[in-house]
Design brief:
0% strand; single chain; 2 helices; mainly alpha; 77 residues
Length: 77
């Protein structure tokens, strides 16, 4: 029982020392997740158009890229 108590205390100390790093990682993932979902959504739309008609996929993908660039440029001002 003594070894188990020592092990649990050591494990709790390791978790406590990693808590700031885990919080920072969660914040980083939380900040990038909406952007990643938008990129994946745009890719899915372009791929779906490409499956129907190959040139349409390139047209839709280019249109989404231009629209994204305009939105990013407006947001930077």
């Amino acid at each position: 029982m003594n070894r188990l108590t020592e092990y649990l205390r050591a494990a709790a100390a390791r978790v406590a020392s990693r808590a700031p790093a885990m919080a920072a990682a969660a914040a980083l993932v939380g900040s990038w997740l909406p952007d990643a979902l938008m990129v994946f959504g745009a890719w899915s739309i372009a791929y779906g158009a490409w499956m129907i008609y190959a040139p349409a996929g390139h047209i839709v993908g280019g249109t989404l890229a231009v629209a994204g660039g305009v939105l990013l440029a407006r947001g930077a001002q």
